[in-house]
Design goal:
By secondary structure, this protein is mainly beta. The protein has 1 helix and 10 strands, in the order αββββββββββ. Helices cover 10% and strands 47% of the residues. It is globular, with a radius of gyration of 18 Å.
Length: 127
């Protein structure tokens, strides 16, 4: 009887959706580029630049993680980048990413990105 209970429990859990890590690659769209690598993520939106760890995506496609985000025009600041919250929804080969900087001068915004065939880091054009 105990073996049957263990087997039924294992089968029930085998079909349950599980968390995944954000797929590796370059995501682009809405004037933004997101590089997802094993060691972290780099986001470029115009002159804005964000960094965060590779997020865990829940079975419903949602994720949320903290990182940093700043606008860099001209000389690169030696001060640490201010914190920001990154959240989104992954659906197939597209992701809606919302960036909420803690810098009160910057308003939260969202970008729609598609997985591309590209690899490597996104270039920051304004530095």
């Amino acid at each position: 009887m105990a073996l049957a209970t263990v087997s039924m429990h294992a089968c029930a859990n085998a079909s349950a959706p599980t968390d995944i890590t954000m797929p590796l690659g370059r995501w682009a769209g809405s004037g933004a580029c997101l590089s997802v690598a094993a060691d972290g993520c780099d986001l470029v939106v115009g002159c804005g630049h964000g960094q965060f760890s590779r997020p865990i995506v829940h079975p419903d496609g949602s994720f949320a993680i903290t990182g940093t985000y700043r606008i860099e025009v001209g000389p690169v600041s030696i001060n640490p980048a201010p914190p920001a919250a990154f959240s989104g929804t992954l659906t197939g080969g597209s992701v809606t990413l919302t960036i909420a900087p803690t810098d009160p001068a910057l308003k939260p915004f969202s970008v729609q990105l598609q997985l591309t065939d590209g690899t490597g880091r996104c270039a920051v054009p304004c530095v």
